[in-house]
């Protein structure tokens, strides 16, 4: 039992980053985490393990499909699934231990256990009650459930089970063509599973640029993923280790069944607030179960803040981190700020898909005049050399002022390229500013410049 300036609840990217910034700003800080390791969803069962499996399965795909073309002959590697999982676990451990090290370095106490907030200024963990001038809730999210679908994390799994399957399934049904479904669906398709994605809407990755959606789906189909669109899943049934998924095609109003070794339920995530005692505290929530906060991330109860997946906004690690830093600064009496207009989103498939800012759809809805600069990776020498010519960069700029309003990239290293546009947007740059910036040759980044040139007098290589 001790007195703190700040107690953070949850050690995910929101919570641990917030705690480190609090400590750096001179505040006596503790973090309560109930999981056995630090890092939250992201490091333990989210961003990091999924990227490890994406990397391993992408390497296999390269060996199988592109090595021979470059004169690299020999037997393509076979998959040792146990070793691949061990590699993934090692990556997780390296990262979670890294956070432990950072906590020690910054003199942050890790209070192990599950926290309840009996009153403002108090955090209870087991039999101990700790005092804190400020409490920051960063309790994250959990997979959303689907009526009629019972998850056993063996045959019918969420992303958590999908990251540690006993064996590579021969067939997999993915419910939901969102980020998780397509990333993990790609992993298992590359490892040899017959993957069928069943999606409620007529498009994949809802909310994304329409052209990107179409190109992305075409490329994924070419990679062997099957899609059933406009389909509402009714139920799943498991018998003798196999699952049957029943869905209804909405337009035809017909019911269908599909069987698979594994079903991955990836229909979104919901805020996790169980056990915190928010009801008793009278903390205001949104209709979607998120904690309501003001501009300074403070809830309606003074001294209690919330950040990350548990509040509104995109459920992304970097959004949680930014809020963590900003909330820490607010608590320390400074002026923390997050620019919600410039939060990139990245899907780590091959090719990668990345976006920031407005879409054509959102600009049309807002009645804002805009221009489009687009450049295909086929015109980029580096991409062609690396078998990565599929995809494009699209920059949206204000029709009058040329100010960059958004960017949508599908192609090689899209998740890295997008940040050039993010920085430009933060500085209020015009498309011409990007177009006039010298870009090294031969790089993928030249495609971003060409798209910026396309907003003006035109690109060179198309
Ligand atoms: P979390 O990371 O969920 O952490 C919350 C922590 O709080 C947990 O460790 C939990 O145990 C703890 N906790 C909760 N309640 C209590 C309590 N009462 N007492 C003590 N501890 C408590 N985002 C990206 O930006 N990029 C990606 O590539 C990406 N990939 C993903 C892949 C998958 C498979 C999944 C599931 C998610 C992915 N995400 C990705 C989303 C990302 O993981 C989340 O947006 C991010 O982890 C949110 O951070 P957070 O700190 O808000 O919460
Ligand atoms: P999502 O919101 O991205 O996608 C869910 C999909 O399921 C949507 O396409 C939706 O239309 C569909 N769906 C909903 N109900 C359905 C039904 N009954 N039948 C069929 N389809 C249905 O959610 P997802 O993929 O579960 O990811 C959750 C969160 O995790 C996201 O908010 C995302 O931001 C985060 N995440 C981020 C990653 C990244 O940044 N690379 C990677 C993985 C997750």
TrEMBL record:
Residues 343-452 form the Pyridine nucleotide-disulphide oxidoreductase dimerisation domain. Residues 4-324 form the FAD/NAD(P)-binding domain. SUPFAM superfamilies: FAD/NAD(P)-binding domain (SSF51905), FAD/NAD-linked reductases, dimerisation (C-terminal) domain (SSF55424). PROSITE patterns: PYRIDINE_REDOX_1 (PS00076). Gene3D superfamilies: 3.30.390.30, FAD/NAD(P)-binding domain. The active site is a redox-active disulfide bond. Belongs to the class-I pyridine nucleotide-disulfide oxidoreductase family. This is Dihydrolipoyl dehydrogenase. It comes from Ruegeria alba.
């Amino acid at each position: 039992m001790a007195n703190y300036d700040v107690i953070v609840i949850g050690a995910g990217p929101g919570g641990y980053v917030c705690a480190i910034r609090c400590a750096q700003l001179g505040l006596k800080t503790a973090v309560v985490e109930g999981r056995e390791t630090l890092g939250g969803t992201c490091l333990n069962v989210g961003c990091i393990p999924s990227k490890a499996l994406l990397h391993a399965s992408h390497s296999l795909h390269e060996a199988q499909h592109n090595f021979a073309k470059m004169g690299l002959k020999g037997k393509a590697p076979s998959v040792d699934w146990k070793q691949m999982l061990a590699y993934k676990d090692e990556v997780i451990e390296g990262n979670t231990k890294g956070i432990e090290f950072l906590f020690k370095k910054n003199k942050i106490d890790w209070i192990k256990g599950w926290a309840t907030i009996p009153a403002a200024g108090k955090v209870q963990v087991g039999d101990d009650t700790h005092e804190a001038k400020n409490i920051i809730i960063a309790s994250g999210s959990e997979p959303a459930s689907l009526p009629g679908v019972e998850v056993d994390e063996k045959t019918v799994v969420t992303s958590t089970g999908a990251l540690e399957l006993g064996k590579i399934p021969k067939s997999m049904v993915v419910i939901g063509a969102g980020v998780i479904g397509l990333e993990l669906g790609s992993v298992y398709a590359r490892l040899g599973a017959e993957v069928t994605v069943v999606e409620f809407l007529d498009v994949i990755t809802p909310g994304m640029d329409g052209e990107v959606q179409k190109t992305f789906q075409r490329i994924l189909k070419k990679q062997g993923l099957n899609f059933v669109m406009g389909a509402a899943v009714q139920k799943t049934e498991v018998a003798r280790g196999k699952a049957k998924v029943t869905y209804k095609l909405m337009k035809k109003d017909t019911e269908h069944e599909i069987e698979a070794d594994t079903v991955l339920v990836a229909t979104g995530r919901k805020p996790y607030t169980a056990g915190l005692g928010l009801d008793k505290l009278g903390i205001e929530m949104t209709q979607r179960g998120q904690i309501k906060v003001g501009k300074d991330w403070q809830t309606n109860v003074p001294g209690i803040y919330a950040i990350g997946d548990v509040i509104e906004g995109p459920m992304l690690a970097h959004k949680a981190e930014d809020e963590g830093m900003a909330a820490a600064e607010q608590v320390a009496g400074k002026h923390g700020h997050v620019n919600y207009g410039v939060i990139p989103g990245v899907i780590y498939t091959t090719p990668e898909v990345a976006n920031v800012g407005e879409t054509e759809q959102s600009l049309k809805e807002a009645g804002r005049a805009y221009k489009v600069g687009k450049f295909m990776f086929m015109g980029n020498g580096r991409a062609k050399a690396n078998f990565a010519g599929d995809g494009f960069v699209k920059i949206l700029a204000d029709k009058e002022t040329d100010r960059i309003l958004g960017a949508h990239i599908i192609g090689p290293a899209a998740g890295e390229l997008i940040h050039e546009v993010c920085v430009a947007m933060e500085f209020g740059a015009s498309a011409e500013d990007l177009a006039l910036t010298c870009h090294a040759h031969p790089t993928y980044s030249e495609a971003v410049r060409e798209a910026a040139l396309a907003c003006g007098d035109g690109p060179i290589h198309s």
